[in-house]
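Duplicate of #3305? Posting structure anyway:
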């Protein structure tokens, strides 16, 4: 089998946070009875303070909400007007022709995704190992790294800046054609999958539809995306094996209850992982995520207990219920030596000074300002946070039916089987 060629991006970010020009030309302002053509307009993708589109017009417009239409669009797009700068509040779709809307393949661009070692693709005169690929239902997905200076990626990781790191391509497995609107449901699920791998929100953006090798439409849609950073997750980019996680994860999202549950839990997981609110705030968010997972699990798994019994449980008992149901060890790992030592000084008369106990105890000491608690030492809190993040990730992996390899936050250099694996 021949090595496939690397996917070429349509858009690039030559520097960190570099804006991307999406459109330049005339648009129609459609607030009155007759549309007004406005020449010399530009539509740019801006990264800071958060990814968004900005439409700039040559002369200030009346402040407020207006409607515009881009070339090739059949529907008006709502914009918020701030003088010469306007913010589209709806997706912008640019079409080459109103009659050609079905694409053979759709490219997407991916910001803030980790570097990994994948399968080989041809690049120039040689090959590079930068491809992830998998199939789900009637979709076939391939993702390649965008060729760029490694120092630029390192700078992005150190400063939490934005960068387009990868480009992907989606096709139907049966080679039938696809319209842009047909992708939205699957792209929402793909966003959750890729974000769970990365440990932060990353979204397929800047869609480009192709037919017979020519661009026939482009779709620009704003969505939450975190900047690139060096924070990892349970996933090992050196041995990605994405197919083993993609199928069970996406299948779980087909269930609306679990789709909503994982969306909620992943928000807290990613905020805690990126330590946006510091280590102490992240511990609070991690406990919230575990309590939510325990609740959803008790409502939807076969090892559940009566709701009244679940409500009577203390917080640490609910977390233990979740972890034991997911066959995840609750004892403190030997790598968390500062946490182990601090727990020995706790005066609580209990024999269950395990991970759930430590997390809830530290959260309570933080909330009630117990300044003399040795459990609030920075290294102790950091080890507890790593353990809590591992609990969240392993619980999700168990609940979706994954049985492969993972990395424990307390020993990230080692890839090991999940605790419930039969291997």
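Output from current build:
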């Amino acid at each position: 089998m021949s090595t496939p060629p690397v996917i070429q991006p349509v858009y690039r970010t030559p520097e960190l946070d570099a804006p991307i020009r999406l459109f330049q030309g005339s648009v129609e302002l459609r607030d009155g009875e007759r549309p007004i053509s406005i020449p010399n307009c530009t539509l740019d993708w801006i990264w800071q303070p958060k990814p968004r589109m900005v439409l700039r017009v040559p002369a200030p417009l009346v402040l407020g909400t207006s409607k515009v239409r881009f070339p090739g669009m059949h529907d008006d797009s709502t914009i918020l007007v701030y003088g010469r700068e306007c913010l589209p509040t709806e997706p912008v779709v640019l079409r080459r022709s109103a009659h050609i809307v079905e694409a053979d393949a759709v490219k997407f661009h991916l910001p803030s995704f980790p570097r990994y070692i994948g399968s080989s693709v041809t690049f120039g005169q040689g090959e590079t190992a930068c491809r992830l690929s998998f199939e789900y239902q009637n979709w076939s997905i391939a993702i390649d790294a965008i060729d760029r200076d490694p120092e630029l990626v390192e700078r992005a990781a150190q400063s939490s800046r934005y960068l387009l790191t990868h480009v992907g391509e989606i096709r139907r497995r049966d080679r039938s054609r696809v319209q842009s609107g047909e992708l939205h449901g699957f792209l929402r699920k793909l966003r959750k999958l890729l974000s769970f791998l990365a440990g932060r929100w990353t979204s397929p953006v800047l869609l480009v539809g192709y037919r017979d090798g020519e661009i026939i439409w482009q779709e620009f849609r704003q969505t939450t995306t975190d900047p690139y950073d060096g924070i990892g997750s349970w996933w090992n980019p050196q041995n990605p094996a994405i197919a083993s996680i993609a199928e069970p994860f996406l299948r779980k999202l087909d269930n609306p209850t679990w789709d909503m549950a994982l969306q909620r839990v992943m928000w807290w997981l990613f905020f805690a992982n990126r330590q946006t609110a510091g280590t102490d705030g992240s511990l609070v968010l991690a406990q919230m995520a575990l309590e939510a997972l325990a609740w959803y699990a008790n409502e939807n798994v076969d090892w559940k207990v009566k709701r009244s019994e679940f409500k009577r449980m203390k917080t640490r008992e609910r977390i233990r219920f979740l972890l034991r149901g997911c066959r995840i060890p609750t004892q403190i790992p030997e790598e968390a030596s500062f946490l182990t030592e601090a727990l020995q000084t706790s005066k609580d008369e209990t024999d269950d000074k395990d991970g759930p106990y430590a997390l809830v105890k530290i959260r309570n000491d933080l909330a009630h300002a117990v300044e003399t608690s040795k459990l609030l030492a920075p290294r102790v809190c950091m080890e507890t946070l790593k353990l809590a993040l591992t609990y969240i990730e392993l619980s999700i992996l168990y609940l979706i039916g994954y049985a492969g390899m993972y990395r424990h936050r307390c020993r990230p250099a080692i890839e090991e089987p999940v605790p419930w694996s039969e291997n």
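Confirmed duplicate; merging threads. Residues 101 and 179 are 6 Å apart (CA to CA). The first helix runs from residue 150 to 159.
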